[in-house]
Amino acid sequence: MLNNFLGKRHHYRRFTYQPRYYDPSKDERIRERMRVNSSTRRGRGGNVLMYILLLSGILWILVTL
């Protein structure tokens, strides 16, 4: 009788994990692609430094005038 008064309790579904097939060659291809992308991004740091130097030079000229 008490169960009917409080209503039905919600039951959660159990965790069901179906693992995907692991392919080591695909994993190596992804790692190699990540290495290539990270090496190309490292070369762009010099451009940012040049922009900072250029901007600071322009600001210095404006301040001295």
Describe the protein.
- It contains 3 helices and no strands.
- The protein is mostly helical.
- It has one domain.
- The chain starts with a helix and ends with a helix.
- The model has no long low-confidence stretch (mean pLDDT 78).
Low-confidence stretches: none
- Domain count, please report it: 1
Mean pLDDT: 78
User: Using only CA atoms, what is the Rg?
Assistant: 30 Å
Question: How many E-type strands?
Answer: 0
Distance between the termini: 90 Å
Listing every helix as H and every strand as E from the N terminus to the C terminus, the arrangement reads HHH
**Major sheet:** none
- Helical region count? 3
Helix content: 55-70%
Structural class comes to mainly alpha
User: What fraction of the residues are assigned to beta strands by DSSP?
Assistant: under 5%
Short description:
This protein has 65 residues and is mostly helical.
Features:
3 helices; mainly alpha; 0% strand; elongated
Show the helix and strand layout:
Blueprint: H1 2-6, H2 24-42, H3 45-64
